[in-house]
What does this fold into?
Amino acid sequence: MTLHVVPALTAVSPAVMVTNLRRAYGNRVVIENLNLRIERGEFVALLGESGCGKTTLLRALAGLDPVDGGRIAAPRRPAVVFQEHRLLPWDSLWRNVSLGLQVGNPRDRAATALAEVGLGDRLDDWPRNLSGGQAQRVALARALVQEPELLLLDEPFAALDALTRIRMHDLVRELVATHRPGVFLVTHDVDEAIALADRILVMRDGRIAFEHRTRGRGGASIARTELLAELGVGATHPAPAA
Amino acid sequence: MSNLEQTASPVAFDAAPRGDTTAAHIPRRRLEIGRRGLQLLSWLAPAILLVVWELLARGGWLSPQVLPAPSKVIGTAFRLTTSGSLLNDLGVSLLRAVAGFAIGGGVGFVLGTLVGFSRIAEAAIDRSVQMIRAIPFLAALPLVIVWLGVGEAEKIFLVALGVTFPIYINTTLGIRQVDPKLVELGRVQGLGTLELIRRIVLPGALPSILTGVRYALATAWLALVVAETIGAQSGIGFLAMDAREFLRTDVIVLTIVIYALIGVAADGIARSLERRLLAWHPNYGSAR
It folds into this structure.
């Protein structure tokens, strides 16, 4: 079983490099001696039970929470998509997408980004007129318009209905293929991880306890059983008919 | 469809639906009819009151020394307007209100912003402000007169005093209520502190701040009325006090009506500000 996820050194610097990370709330250690490396253009999904420290790790990578030990070498400004869309209700869609963008023509850039997520005709609309899926697409556009080296996704599709989620998966695959950021997806949905990721990690007891590299669609059902077992769920759950 | 006629009498409210109206439509129809009727009724009642007042005054049952006829008040308004003194006094009163509002609003906003952002500022400022707020601001009037006399400064000061607290409280509250998740997002998107305040904190606090503005307009007006009633040489309040000397109830009633109208106008301005600035907000905005 692979406990340390440290791939061989490559010439290109990785999107993120975590060494011996430690994070504790008082006496409760949430992350202990965790190592992680994500290459540029690589899609990594992190699975784990609720409260296992997945989101804590993501927030540490985003620079939102302090760490108690170890080292994180991440881009200065990774882009984050949260579970909630977090659109500013008082700004139009293009103003939302261009939030924090330091360019001369923010509206044009936002228009391109919104077109990429299929909302190019809604530049001046208000967030409150969007459905949950559309709002999350705007949040994706807002993250990608920054051309991040590292994209952090914190269960961004958890609140969406099943069909919308599948459409979002396709969209994310497309966008990631175009922009090639390193992606770190935190999710509790095994099928989502299999559908999207190049590499799937399972977090347990504050460290990476299991790693699986997806190789084409053939190994999916094997991977599913294995991953569910790692998450402490029996192998009796059939894969969804695909 | 004669909705209005139907609802002028309450009987129509309980009338059974006619024709092919399906059961599913009944509640909505009733609501629509009821709302229109109630609106009509709400305007009808004061109109009737006004007519009764006019009739009583004309019939001699109401002495002009007690209450002049509404028509006479209108005539007085016309006469005073053409002679120019009414507009002049109105201008003086409005200027006092605006000056006091600007000063009080500015102080309230700055203090409220400081306290909203900083726990240190809260510890240093908030308790003192709350203590002063506990004083009904009109109770401070004698002291204000001792300090500033009965000139313009005293009137503007009193208005400012009344305005400061509602703006202060609602600004603080509004800033505290801004969704921390949005602030966090702002940081993720790389906003600096000033940009964070401009793009996220202030817009988020705006609904609350505008509520404060509406409260403040009411207190500003009250403060102005009281201040102008004491030792004014011009203004609407002076007009009223001057008229009292000569038992000119028509002028007194006119000034009361003017105060009311300006209060309504101020509230209307505040409402339209809300509609424009909060167009994004589901509870205020006119945008679909």
